Predict the 3D structure of the following.
Amino acid sequence: MAITNKIENFRMQVNEAFVNKAEALRPRLLEKEVTPRRLVKILPQGEDYRAEYAAPAEALGTMPLGRGGRVCLDFGDHQVGYVSLRLTATGSPPDAPAWVRLKFGEIPYEIAADSSAYHGSIAKGWIQEEFLHVDSFPAVISLPRRYAFRYMELYVIDTSPKYQLLLGDVRCVSVSSADPAAVTPLPTTDPALLRMDQVSLKTMQDCMQLVFEDGPKRDRRLWIGDLRLQALTNYVSFRNNDLVKRCLYLFAGLTQNEGRVGACLFLEPKLQVDDTSLFDYSLFFVSCLHDYYEATHDAATLQELFPTADRQIELSLQELDDSYVVKDKNTWWCFLDWAEGLNKQAGAQAILIYALKQARLMAKWLGDERKAAAYADWIERTTQGALEKLWDEGKGFFLSGSEGQISWASQVWFVLAGVFPREKNAALLKHLIAENPPLSMVTPYMYHHFIEALFQSDLPELAKKYLQGYWGRMLEDGADTFYELYDPENKAASPYGDRLANSFCHAWSGTPAYFIRKYMQ
């Protein structure tokens, strides 16, 4: 499964003033040199793999590798950066080039997996492996590509029988625009909470590059759904608010047809908005701007970018039917979650109401009472439409689509939209948990919204339970950054048909620090 909803007759609209402001905020990447901590063997563990200690890193100098030889290095923690190494020949003078493969993995599975058997729906080029011919020795090799990894394996495909290879001076220059020194330590001695916060912040740090990337291994671009959650976490941790501002100006400066904010942006080989359009992601520009102003009180940026936010509301209102309910569509035009078969109508309606309320607040902050009143009218219409057409009092759920689908995503988003008072929202969430409709949540992205809904509905103990039950299980499985997708009952789960394509350091999964620092101190 992949996002394929493309704008017809796509064209990019460029606001050069906004792009220039964004480029003026381009961050300086902080660099840190990291070397391997140990050598490991990758071994099966149930349906997965584990890294087992084999030798200290210093043992590399005493381990000549010939044809079929391999060694796996553990850097001790997730890294995002640039790798260099030295290969030396030992034995007789080399009479043929060495042919080697380097493989990089965020988790042990990526080292163990056979990439030639990959059958996923997205490009195999995301698999992190390199094949090198080395003609003369000693050879100092600096790999030009940036990698996201903890484990690095060198496999010798072939040398001549006359010589072997020694691997040495392996190092990674890790990069990030996030400064860990800016983060205030948690005032707790709870080791489980400290570990969850640490891994959450490491996930965020490694995704904070020249923009907030969604995953430093795969996609490596700026998605607005990820940005919204990254920014919320950033405000309570790294406080690199200029990076949020830069991303807002990029989205506003590089729009699609009719001024629509795109789902994602590319930075290379040039700044470019993608031709993918998602209903909810366009509306999240409203949310990102709202949250940015709440965190910074940067009135100048709010004033300048509010018309872009308002335009997203205008475009979204065109999708309403005569009952002021978002039209149900068969095409994938709204994300919500990766859950197979999820109908998006109800969730899209709730997100529209959610964004309308944030837009109304921004209009009031700007002193635009006319615009605020117009938003209030649309809030009333869309809320009434949802209650009349989507809410089923007998079932106690919001229904979505022509078949009246009941999903976790629909209920969660209506809670976040505040259609009901807080007490009724709490009752809806308890009813959802008790009934457990089968169309559940499959991504940390959707789990984030569920836990946010629990906290906002005065159900903190339930929120903590699910936070520990989901992200805590990832930690038990050895995560040192949090994953794009996680199913504790199915470690092979992937929206792309093959787990090898999954991202194991992913921005939308890095929000436990947000919950811990906002709600749990």
About this structure: Residues 31-176 form a domain with the Jelly Rolls fold (CATH 2.60.120.260).
